[in-house]
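Reopening this one. Same input as before:
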Amino acid sequence: MIWDQERRSKAERMEKAAGYARGKRVGTEEIVPFLESVIRSGDRVVLEGCNQKQAAFLAGALKEVNQGKVHDLNMIIPSISRDEHLDLFDRGIASEINFSFAGVQSRRLAEMVAENTVKIGAIHTYLELYGRLYVDLTPNVCLIAADKADSNGNLYTGYNTEETPILAEAAAFKNGIVVAQVNEIVGEDDLPRVDIPGGWVDYIVKADEPYPMEPLFTRDPARIQEAHILMGMMTIKGIYAKHGVKSLNHGIGYNGAAIELLLPTFGDYLGLKGKICTNWVLNPHPTLIPAVEAGWVKQVCAFGGELGMERYTAARPDIFFTGKDGMLRSNRAAAQVAGLYGIDLFLGGTLQMDYEGNSSTVTGGRLSGFGGAPNMGNSTGGRRHTTKAWRDMGPLTGSMASGRKLVVQMTKSQSKYGPAFVPELDAVKIGRKAGMDAAPVMVYGEDVTHVVTEQGIAYLYQAQNAEERTKMLGCIAQGTPVGSMVGIGEIEQLRREGKVAYPQDLAISPDAAKRELLAANSLEEIADLSGGLYRVPEQFRKQSE
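Same output, byte for byte:
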């Protein structure tokens, strides 16, 4: 029996590509024929597409390979965020995709699935996808991006490492071929630090332009609404303070941004500094800067970087994880693990929630995927360390009394698209139509402990059964169909029992939810509070001019 077929295959591919490489370096202009040499039809190919850092040069080159030579690829793209990612399917180069998040490509992806142009292997959480790289989706070829490389293939990923190491390792130690596009090739002694050793990397190529980055997690305070502020006030007092939440993650959105900007004002008023919101797992949101500067934040573990925050994170090494070069070290896989096991609370927004509390961002005409929300919004049974917040969610009695993570979903009770609460998620029908064995639910209702709308808080962890959960949701969605399922008497009873809280139950006046309560009302104000370290990204500067 032959035990090293994969190693032999790799050697054959590299021999075929020898004419395009000088040592580990491949010429920029030779990248297309080079890829045709190392990639075979039917391969599993990882293409780095993080939330921000993109192997855009390699994506564009892969799109140009001869479909007669390379086809039917199984693409593994954590975040589908570029046109080239889906162009591969239009051109017949790829046939199947496994991913976590689609974002701006969600509408196009939905259309291509409906047209049978794309076959979805599965929509994963980030950790799930990374895990499968080491089980049954191990890549034959891995295409990644880095800031700098030396001639030995050592990589410096700099401010935005994200998921590059875990992608490379899965291929490097299973005889896959690892190709890195870099912004710059430097001398052996000129790398600020080594983030990925050259022994993991087979080829490097200088991209024709630096990889693109977008400020995907930046939210302009100028767009925060009074409803967000009211929900933020209720969350701080009715959830964070009530349960003593110190370690947490905020998902992307204006709800979380409002809370971050309320900590140095409303939070100070309540005397909560040092008692809540000290340890964070999140991208370095600029809206967290006022809380950092006011002494609220002890430590931040970052999934990735955020455009404009480079100098600020470098200047705050007590808060952020940094390398010897002073630059942020992010790690998406490690941060996902921290979010799964290390935090007490996940707060996220949702586009749609059913009457049982299940929610999804997969809605009509969109296949957005999940990213890391199901990892954050899941109370894993593997946790063993205890905190007050975690214990608050568990049973009060019993020799095996345990706890669970707080999972908070925030949404307005209705929007211009209609009620946020629906009898059945769009995801159920979409999943069925796409041939999925399971509906693409983002967070299951059984994991949700709190739901916050502009009307109040439903403490779902106290619900005795599914029927009561629905009634509690109806209490905070009055004026919608689910709201009609609960009577006035039932609402008052649930309020008395502390299972539902309206603003007045928390001694919060909706009239106080004004923009003046925010610690900053624009990104420019945040830049001033940072001492000029934060640089407002150009696209936001244009919006404010």
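So the earlier flakiness isn't reproducible anymore. For the record, The chain is about 30% helix and 15% strand.
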